[in-house]
């Protein structure tokens, strides 16, 4: 009975965040995410509208931009470093079902997105993945294993397509009005 009550309470909090995600008042969304969903959000970080947050442990560093319609699954853990950019429609999962399980059991591992990474639009990152420092994940990419540092990857599943300059000097700080 207590477990059921907890599941309902979490669902209500997640649903509240989803509804609040449509309201173009950034500080209000950040307040809700920090205080009701217990997301740790660093300074100068922005979460644009319509972000779906799954309850759990989510830590977001400083100078992070999360684009519209992102899905952040913290059920097993999601750790985002500093100066990271997520374009629109990025989905990150830390938990999924085991297709070989006779009872469809859930399995998962934390996801780590390290400093200065850029995750482009419509990308899906699966449980247990680490996107290492400075990596770029191209649009429409499926990330099912670790991404080496300062590489550019793309495809389904991804392949390394290039390397990235290690001399990164920018600091992200962008907030679009009404997003």
From TrEMBL:
Q: Which domain of life is it from?
A: Bacteria
* InterPro entries cross-referenced by the UniProt entry: Hexapep, Hexapeptide_acetyltransf, Trimer_LpxA-like_sf
Q: Matching Gene3D superfamilies, A to Z?
A: Hexapeptide repeat proteins (2.160.10.10)
Entry annotated with the keyword Membrane: yes
Q: Which GO terms describe its cellular component?
A: cytosol
Transmembrane stretches, start-end: 12-32
Keywords of the record, alphabetical order, are: Membrane, Transferase, Transmembrane, Transmembrane helix
Q: Name one GO molecular function term.
A: O-acyltransferase activity
Using the record for this protein, list the coiled-coil segments as residue ranges, or answer none.
none
What SUPFAM superfamilies does its record include?
Answer: Trimeric LpxA-like enzymes (SSF51161)
Belongs to which family? Belongs to the transferase hexapeptide repeat family.
Q: What is this protein called?
A: Acetyltransferase
């Amino acid at each position: 009975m207590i477990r059921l009550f907890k599941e309902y309470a979490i669902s209500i909090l997640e649903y509240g965040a989803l509804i609040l995600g449509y309201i173009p008042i950034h500080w209000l969304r950040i307040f809700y995410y920090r205080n009701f969903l217990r997301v740790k959000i660093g300074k100068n970080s922005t979460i644009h509208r319509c972000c779906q947050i799954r309850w759990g442990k989510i830590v977001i560093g400083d100078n992070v931009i999360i684009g519209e319609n992102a899905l952040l699954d913290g059920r097993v853990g999601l750790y985002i470093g500093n100066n990271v950019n997520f374009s629109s429609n990025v989905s990150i999962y830390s938990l999924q079902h085991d297709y070989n399980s006779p009872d469809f059991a859930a399995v998962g591992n934390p996801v780590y997105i390290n400093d200065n990474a850029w995750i482009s639009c419509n990308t899906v990152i699966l449980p247990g993945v680490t996107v290492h420092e400075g990596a770029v994940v191209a649009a429409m990419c499926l990330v099912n294993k670790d991404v080496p540092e300062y590489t550019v990857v793309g495809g389904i599943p991804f392949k390394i397509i290039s390397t990235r300059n290690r001399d990164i000097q920018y600091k992200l700080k962008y907030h679009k009005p009404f997003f």
